[in-house]
Each structure stands twice: as C-alpha cells, then as structure tokens.
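STRUCTURE:
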C-alpha cells in the first residue's frame, strides 16, 4: 500500500512530466520570443538561440530533482531527450514519449500500453512548433541574476518571474554556460515551497540519427494495447 508521502511524490512527479519538463524543453527552443526587459539578459538569450538553431539535432541527458521540505519529499530521477526541429523522443521515469511533428506516442512498458494523441493547438500544455517560438511573448519578467562557478564553468543565471498572480510558480532560474552558450540547468520554485531542478549532464549535437528516430513502429510492441485518443 502506498504511503501518503509516496502518493504525493508520485503525483508531483507526474505533474512535472506534463508541465515542468515540457516547459524545460520549450525553454531550450524558445528564446527568440522573449520580450526585452533586461538588455544583457536579452543579448545572452539571443546568443543561446543562435547557438541552438545552428544545430541539426540535440541530444541531452538530464537529472531531475524534486524537493519539498514541508512534505519531506526528496526525489531524483534521470532521463534523456533527442530533439530535431519540432520532433523529439523523451525517456523519463520508464516512459517513452515520441512526437513525430503531428502525433504524440506515449509508451508505458509497465502497463504494456501505447497512447496515441494528436496535438491540439488550443491545449495550453501541448508542445507545438508555434509555441516553441512564442512561449515567452508574454507572462514573464526577466533579468540577469547571480553568476556561479561550477567545476570550472561560469554559469550565468537569468531569473524569470510569472506576471500572473494565478501562476503557481514563484520564479524560474535558467543557468547558462557563458562559454558554450548551452543550458546548464533550470530551477523552478513554486509558491508552495516545491523546488524542481533539471540539470543537463550531457549536451551533444549533430549526432547520427536513425531514419526512423522519430517514427513510432507498432511492430515493436506486438502485445501492447494501443489506445488511440483521437
């Protein structure tokens, strides 16, 4: 039987999979649309944008940490994501999500189930090409924050603060490696005291990818239940 803490942890992690991790992916691809509020921050984000756009594809291994002292929750997980344009393959907490540009395929080995759904442009939680370029057009204030030395790497943080009082996030800190212009980490602090941190352990670019890298192949899952939502 699950304890209350286990239930809270699982619920928090699953909410993160739908929202926080999606936001992290969007952050990696959506800097061009941030409205200017801090020139230095804008210049740095523009440099990151140019660097990211210069790559044919990006492969990232990451660590995700969830902490809430009040609920005595400390949860660490690892995952990886491969991105090319608006397509991606995400592996996290035993679940694989493939987005081929039109449909999302969520593969859950534990349940032997595959859920297929189309992208709804009106869905605020949906990752779409347009939202990847307009995510920060409104709703955030941002400015340069602290600089840290992490194992010889100079990490410049940019703070993003939601302008809506309904947003449950207090602030977001985005850490950027000043030399490489790559994302080092993302720290999200909620108004309820929950702190989530996504740290990039490995950032590779222009890797050789399979022709079917972002294609769902049903024959690989002969015994799985295929759940088509659309």
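SEQUENCE:
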């Amino acid at each position: 039987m699950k304890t209350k803490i286990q239930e809270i942890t699982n619920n928090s992690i699953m909410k993160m999979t739908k929202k926080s991790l999606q936001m992290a992916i969007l952050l990696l691809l959506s800097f061009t649309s941030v409205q200017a509020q801090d020139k230095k921050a804008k210049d740095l984000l523009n440099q990151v944008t140019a660097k990211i756009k210069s790559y044919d594809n990006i492969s990232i291994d990451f660590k995700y940490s969830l902490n809430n002292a009040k609920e005595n929750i400390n949860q660490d997980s690892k995952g990886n994501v491969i991105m090319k344009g608006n397509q991606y393959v995400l592996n996290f907490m035993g679940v694989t999500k493939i987005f081929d540009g039109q449909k999302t395929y969520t593969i859950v080995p534990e349940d032997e189930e595959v859920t297929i759904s189309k992208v709804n442009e009106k869905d605020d939680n949906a990752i779409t090409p347009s939202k990847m370029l307009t995510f920060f057009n409104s709703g955030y204030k941002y400015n340069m924050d602290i600089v840290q030395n992490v194992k010889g790497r100079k990490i410049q943080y940019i703070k993003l603060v939601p302008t809506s009082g309904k947003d449950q996030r207090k602030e977001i800190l985005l850490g950027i490696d000043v030399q490489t212009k790559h994302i080092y980490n993302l720290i999200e602090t909620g108004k309820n005291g929950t702190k989530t941190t996504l740290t990039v352990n490995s950032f590779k670019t222009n890797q050789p990818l399979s022709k079917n890298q972002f294609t769902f192949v049903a024959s690989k899952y002969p015994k799985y239940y295929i759940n088509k939502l659309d």
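REMARK: The chain has a mean pLDDT of 80.
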